Amino acid sequence: MTPPITWDPLLEGYLDYLRVVRRQAPRTLVDVRCTLRHVCTALAVLRPDVPLWKLSLEDYLHWLEQERQARRPTSCLRKYLSHLRGLLDYAWRSGRADRNVLDGFALQDDHRRRAPDTLSLDEAARLVESCTNRSPAERRNRVIVLLLYGCGLRTQELCRLNVEHVDVERHELFIAHGKGDRQRTVPIPETVFTELLAYLHERGGRRGPLFRTEVRHTRILASVPGDVIREAAERAHLGRAITPRTLRHAYATHLMDAGVDLAVISSLMGHRSPSETGVYLHVLADRPQAAVRQLPLGEGGRP
Question: Could you tell me if residue 102 is inside a domain?
Answer without folding.
Answer: no
